[in-house]
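Changelog-adjacent note: as of this version, every example in the card shows the full chain rather than a window. The one below runs 528 residues end to end.
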Amino acid sequence: MRRLILRTKINYFARVTAGESPAERYAASELSKYLEKAGIPAGEEGADIRILIDPGLPRDGYRIDIPKQRDRYIRIRGGSGRGVIYGVYGFLTHYAGMRFFQPGLESLGEGDIDVQEGIEFTPVFDMRRLDGHFGNDDPDWCVKNGVNAREIPPEMGGYYYYADGRFCHTMEYLTGVPQSTQPCLSDPEVLKKTIAKVREMLARNPDCSAVSVTQNDNLDYCTCPKCAAADAEEESHAGSLIRFVNAVADDIAADYPNVVVDTFAYTYSRKPPKKTKPRDNVSVMICSYECCFAHPLSDMSCPKNVDFCRDLVAWSKICRKIRVWDYVANYGYFIPTYANFRVMQENMRFFAEHNVIGVYPEGAYNTPASGEFGELRSYLLAKLLADPAMGLGEYYRHMDEFLAAFYGAGWRYIRAYIDWFIGEAGRHHADLAAKPLSFITEDRYAAMEETFVSWWDKAEEMAQDEAVRERVRRSRLQLRCIQLMLHPDAERAAEFVEDMKRWGVRWREKHPLPEKQHLALSPEKWSW
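Full-length structure tokens:
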């Protein structure tokens, strides 16, 4: 039987009380539910746990206070409804050892719930966004894992949202200029139209966190004399953009003091301007689009990452609010193993050290299921978004806990597979759509093929039930894909594609499935 030990007092029951707001009541019901699952039901004679909102704390932050010698109650306080709910899940993970891996896949921990000292926690990033896939679109999972930029009901704490739900490439919507080109940012009428549209959006969304004023998705920036002169003076095409966005931010600042105007540092606008600084209510989202993802973005020895690293550091010197749009999948090949697990951890730490207050690590966003390690990557990213400064030991502990829960008794064989890829990563470069045999070579795969097969065989054999075995088999698609690259075979390729269909796994960003006439070729040629 599990017990709740408060300092030296042993409790077999718990009494949970809360404030009157829907979020406080939800937090109390969740705590009571999970304590009862752990074997500590409600009872008047048990430990007294009080849940309340404390506006003096940061919005998403929480504090858990334990009683002094004569007191008997624990207080869980949060800076908002979201913060107090995070406090409840912080209590359950920190003291009870509970884990929320996937919707429907949770661990209640074991042993006594030993509360000896309080904790205080505030996420480093105010915006923590993941793609809506692999369970990440489930509000319950998001709240339990601190992801706050997916749609979450108010009673579950609400979410960080953009006005009208428009997150990126909004110039077409704001100005009427087609997505295939860019507006003239020196034209007073364009500014007037943008401000009017932004105010319309904010009137509809007065409680939003941000409004997006972001360039269209092309390289056709304005080259009129005024825009060209501004960019020349600033030594960057971000010059005319930041001047324009600052004007929008100045107009709305007094009426919407809690709203941030979000813009991009993307492709041609990634280099910061020399003279103009973003206003305090402007956030700049820098995008790692051109980078190498086999090396950390902070790696100055990687020629593909030098400019991004310099740009982020330079933005951090002039901008108080930076966000990062990072990329954590291979958009040309969703299925072959993507060896970026070590890189993700280093990148998040780098971001946190340079004024980054929000991160969107874009993954394989449009595949319903993963034929690789999408679920694991999402879980680890959620942990890193909440605590980007975590050490390697804690990071790999999260990895091991997930692997054991998701893949069952043979998880260590899959961990060995991942470790090999972590060790191999960095020998070559990998862009957004890198061919798998370009950043880990054919001879390296060939040398390990038999070992890989034995590891996945063992993992499948040791799976304790059919549900776990199916997870192993689906994730094994990544090895099967590599084997087809080493040994093209139309019959085995057809079986591979049928399994993709059965599990709902997408081939690449733009194509759900490879074309049948390509199946006799190596999968590296299916995409082109």
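Structural remarks: Residues 442-461 form the longest helix (20 residues).
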